[in-house]
Specification:
mainly alpha, globular, disordered C terminus
């Protein structure tokens, strides 16, 4: 339970500091809906569903270490495996998600990713995993 409370706290910090980035990554997950849990037709018009908020937060915290779309793919797969277990589906199904997140990261010059030379910025992390 402590993990969930800590994750919610960190996600709140991320949402406040990186609101646009958080929302864009969350929209990628909602649009692709890899676990078929969002059940919404148009994520842009939804009343901010939070089905993928925990996954969004844990993915975003790890993005500063990514130097390529393949790195993002590994992060996405590892986080979905963490949240949903090893039966998350085929790796190829996560490629569009990783590619979209990588483009978001590259376009956002304020975001701390190695591609933007801002990797020295730190994001909140979990004490335990």
């Amino acid at each position: 339970m402590k993990d969930n409370l800590e994750i919610k706290k960190i996600n709140k910090l991320l949402k406040n500091q990186y609101r646009r980035m958080f929302r864009k990554v969350e929209l990628v997950l909602l649009t692709n809906d890899p676990m078929s849990i969002a059940h919404i037709e148009d994520p842009e018009l939804a009343d901010h569903p939070d089905e993928y908020a925990p996954e969004t937060g844990t993915i975003i915290r790890r993005l500063p270490t990514a130097v390529s779309p393949n790195d993002v793919l590994e992060i996405v797969i590892q986080e979905f495996t963490h949240w949903f277990g090893p039966e998350i589906g085929r790796k190829a199904g996560y490629r569009p998600i990783a590619d979209d997140i990588w483009l978001i990261c590259k376009k956002n010059t304020a975001w701390p990713c190695k591609e933007n030379n801002n990797a020295s910025k730190s994001l909140p992390t979990l004490h335990q995993r």
